[in-house]
């Protein structure tokens, strides 16, 4: 992704809730330098809200979304299918 251009300082995620299943799926919208902190803050909030089923969905056809992998793995999210 980084080819010398300036990186955004802030990341953006969307959250798709299914409260009936106690499930939320996070989706990357924008990659920034704070990706790790952004993922961590979202997961921390969801855990406090007692939502145990947290998923992080990436479109691997958009290569920039792969940069969220270290941040999601650092938060204990495992690889899915």
What does this structure look like?
By secondary structure, this protein is an alpha+beta fold. It is built from 2 helices and 3 strands; from the N terminus they run ββαβα. The mean pLDDT is 90.
The H-and-E topology, N to C, reads as: EEHEH
Name the average pLDDT.
Answer: 90
- N-to-C span: 24 Å
* Sheet/helix structural class: alpha+beta
Number of domains: 1
Overall geometry comes to globular
The count of helical stretches stands at 2
Topology:
Elements: E1 12-18, E2 23-30, H1 35-48, E3 53-56, H2 69-74
Parallel strand pairs: 2-3
Antiparallel strand pairs: 1-2
Relevant terms:
3-stranded mixed beta sheet; 81 residues; 3 strands; single chain; alpha+beta
What's the short version?
This protein has helices at 35-48, 69-74; strands spanning 12-18, 23-30, 53-56. The chain is α+β, with helices and mostly antiparallel strands and 81 residues long.
